[in-house]
Amino acid sequence: MQLNATAIVVAARAHGETAVIVRAMTEEHGLVAGYVAGGRGRTLRPVVIPGNVVAIDLRARSESQLPFARLELVESRGPWLGEPLPAAAIGWVTALTATALPERNAYPNLYNALSAVLDAICHAPSARGWLQGLVAYEALLLRELGYGGAPPRAEAGLEPLLEIFAAHGPLLERYLLADRRGDVMSARTMLRERLGRMRT
């Protein structure tokens, strides 16, 4: 197996003393995983942050082997991780993607939507500028995996978007995250609490 692509890092888990297992979303190959030697070192630690856009080079001798991955940073989301609301949003959409999708199934619409949502989170003046995109991404993910999910109306204001966001929670938990390890929904709970403060 050999793969070269632009990808969005959606998860990074420590492996051994210095390595990292990275999961990344690509447009043509879907979700892929790879072993990054030295991923916890000074050079690569800023690269394997969920949300980052990277050039990924995956190589494996067989389909059953976890590929070795080499990453090169294309775009960093690091500057926004110090801001509570953008950090929570980036954490949620990447964790949801990494947990809900099967590996090596192409979902080009989801890749493009995830890329657009992350761009909006990082560049919109406030959450009002990206919340609709995030809610639309959740709806698209539900639809792509066969569980319905209606996109929000273009003119939806803050309160309707927060209501749709709340309504998606049980659907995501029941259909996409019920049998998954780890408490992925805690990332969504944190985001919901921070979004709720926008009402005041």
Describe the structure.
With 200 residues, the chain is an alpha+beta fold. It has two domains: 2-76, OB fold (Dihydrolipoamide Acetyltransferase, E2P); 79-199, de novo design (two linked rop proteins) (Up-down Bundle). The chain is built from five helices and five strands; from the N terminus they run E-E-E-E-E-H-H-H-H-H. The chain has helices at 84-100, 108-123, 131-144, 158-176, 185-196, and strands at residues 2-15, 19-26, 30-36, 53-59, 68-75. The protein has a five-stranded antiparallel sheet with strand order 3-2-1-4-5. Strand 1 and strand 2 form a beta hairpin. Helix 2 runs antiparallel to helix 3. The radius of gyration is 17 Å and the shape is globular. The protein starts with a strand and ends with a helix. 36% of the residues are buried. The mean pLDDT is 91.
> What gross morphology would you assign?
globular
Stated plainly, the CATH topology of the largest domain is called de novo design (two linked rop proteins)
Helix content: 25-40%
Total individual domains: 2
**Count of alpha/pi helices:** 5
Strand order of the largest sheet: 3-2-1-4-5
Please give the CATH class of the largest domain.
Mainly Alpha
Beta-strand residue percentage: 15-25%
**CATH 2nd-level architecture of the largest domain:** Up-down Bundle
- Low-confidence stretches are none
Mean pLDDT: 91
Instruction: Provide the gyration radius in Å.
Output: 17 Å
Structural class: alpha+beta
Q: What kind of sheet is the major sheet?
A: 5 strands, antiparallel
**H/E element sequence:** EEEEEHHHHH
Gap between N and C termini, in Å? 52 Å
DSSP strand count: 5
